[in-house]
Structures are given as structure tokens and as C-alpha cells.
């Protein structure tokens, strides 16, 4: 394995450790959907159903992320116990 790939893997591991893996996954899906929609549109391979499905991710995932943030804030404020804090932060 090259130094570059080890460095990239370390970067990805740090991102997943520093942020909630669910949030990281949502952002990854959102980014892939943008890239896939753009690529398929350029190739002329995107039909109406596929376009609507990928476009819906553009709106749904940010709403989920905002909702997650609101839940996290409410959990901190009212100590609801929704999220465990294993890191001690």
C-alpha cells in the first residue's frame, strides 16, 4: 500500500471517528447522489424516475441532518438520553 493511500485511509478514519458515522454516511450518500446525477445527465442516461429519485436526495438528506442536529441539541439541553457519549466530550 502506498503512502498516499495510507494517508487517505487515515483521513477517512479520522472523519468517521470525529463525527457520528450516521452523519458521515448521510453526507457521503448526498455527495454520491450529486455526482451520479451529474454524470448520468451528461451521458444522457438519466430517465425521469431516476432524476426525481436522485433529486429527492438533494432535499431529504439536508432535512435529516438538520433534524439530527435539533435532536442532538434537545438531548444536550434536556438530557433526554437519546445519544450516548462514549468519548467523554
Q: Can you walk me through this structure?
A:
The protein is mainly alpha-helical and 89 residues long. It is flat. The chain has helices at 3-18, 21-43, 48-78. The protein contains three helices and no strands.
Ends apart, CA distance between termini = 34 Å
Radius of gyration from the alpha-carbon trace, in angstroms = 17 Å
- Give the CA-based shape: flat
Main sheet specs: none
Strand residue content: under 5%
Q: How many individual β-strands?
A: 0
Low-confidence stretches: none
The SSE order reads HHH
Number of helices: 3
Mean pLDDT: 81
Helix content: over 70%
Structural class comes to mainly alpha
Kindly summarize this structure in a few lines.
It is built from 3 helices and no strands.
Descriptive labels:
mainly alpha
Question: What is this structure's SSE topology?
Answer:
Layout (H helix, E strand, L loop, with lengths): L2 H16 L2 H23 L4 H31 L11
